[in-house]
Amino acid sequence: MKIQPFAILALALLALFPQGITAEIYTTGAAEMAGTLGLSADEASWFKTLNMFGQLMAFPLAAWLSYRIGYRALFRLGAGIGLICALISSLWMSSAPQMIAWFGHGVSASFLLLFAHAIVLRNLGYRAIAFVEGVMLLSVVLIPLSIYPYFLSHLAENNLWHWSFAVQVIPFIGMLYWARFGHWPCPDERQKIRFNFLQAVLLSGFICGVTYLLLRGERFNWFRDPEIIELTLLTLVIGAAAIIAMRRRWGKGEYLRFKALASPHGKVGMLDAAVAGFVIMGTTILVSTYVTQVMHYSHEHLGELEMIGFAGMIGGLIIALIATCNPKRNPENVIPAGVSIMLLACALLAGSNAHSGVSDLWPALLLKGLAVGILNITLTVHILRSFPKHQVAEGITWFYLFRNFGSLLAITEFSRLMYIETVGSVSKLAENYNASSETFVLHQQMTADLLQQGMINPSSEQIALLLSEQLKTQAMSVAGVNNFQWIIFSIILLVPIMVIAMKWANNQPHHQDNESEVH
């Protein structure tokens, strides 16, 4: 059967289109969704948690299904689940169905993401993989990070967030039509392998436990809560049992194979994936928090700022393609450049304050976009392409498990640090906000003068409210700057580990069966 690269690219882009929208709509419209459905902010956060449950639990299942039923059936199944969930999210304005749908969105996204990467990696050559994967990652990562927030924030602020799911119905129908009637551009194979229920239960339990702890642990003040301590110990036990069961092949059949991690480059690739997820998500969440909570920008204005970074991402994409499309070049050589650029961007952001504007932030956002483009494209293409074609499905699964856990760790660490730094800043600043402090008296008088200039007769309650808002803004500003310094420290700590690991892997014997075919 003749391979058709352009048809493979079109099929992969169609499969990935809905995922970028779903990933960003919660970020831009969580408050509006909560208001429409009558939920508190904490209750609405379960949308993200359930979606991540679905994504991470479905990746190993998708790898098993790719062998058992083939990629065409996997594509059809992912599109069918996505279509049902898109219809529920766009038409059914009730919390329970929405929760189920968000879990289904995660399952569908994992099925289709694994499918899209697999048909490219299994059927194209060295250079074609670099170009096609670059275009795919542009559509599923770079554009959602930079372009989608602006448009989705418009929908959310007008309480039209459900339309972001309605527009996904058409591509899902297109996928189902292509899977049933369209020409299939590559061979499809199946294997009669048995499902290992024991390994599936243990691995899914471990994934759920880790995800819950990382996304919800902060609400229980972490390890000061006995239930969190008990859940942590239980998760560790289940995780150890899952690893032993998969390595020693307990149970009948297969679930997720370990062979993709057997080589030194496979192990180092997973470390790089986790670090990349940590750094990219860490900087993204810090910028979003700083702009919306310290500078008091709306999500619409945040979307405009993110569009500045898109130009940098395109530059990073070009650099990554140059590094990965030629087999004579080592893509790892551009990773230090991407890390250095990210450090510079974080250093510039650490020098900002609550009164900074677009003119102060755009150089940092442009450099951040450039670093994200270089690191994201280079590492993804280089790591996934290193797996032999018969290990592609499990290689993709392990890559995205490690990468997503790195992202979750960044969310957990910096949200916790933001809380700690804010509390510390409030305590420190509040020392000067008392009746005996000259600073407090001066601020009080200035606030009263401002209210009088606005033709308002100031009351003590109004003055106290304004002073508390100023204190909160100052505390958030200090905490935000300190968090940028924390991520700089984290990157400086992680870089030597990555370098040592890559040098170790390069010095190990490299077997031919772990290399991709070069065309």
Automatic annotation (TrEMBL):
Q: Does the keyword Ion transport apply?
A: no
Question: Where, subcellularly, is it found?
Answer: Membrane
- List where this protein forms a coiled coil: none
- GO MF terms, alphabetically ordered: transmembrane transporter activity
In the bilayer, the protein is annotated as: Multi-pass membrane protein
Gene Ontology, cellular component aspect: plasma membrane
What's the superkingdom here? Bacteria
Q: Which residues cross the membrane?
A: 47-67, 74-93, 99-121, 128-148, 160-181, 193-215, 227-247, 268-287, 307-325, 337-355, 361-384, 484-502
Q: Give the PANTHER family listed for this entry.
A: MAJOR FACILITATOR SUPERFAMILY
* Full protein name: MFS transporter
Q: What is the lineage of its organism?
A: Bacteria, Pseudomonadati, Pseudomonadota, Gammaproteobacteria, Vibrionales
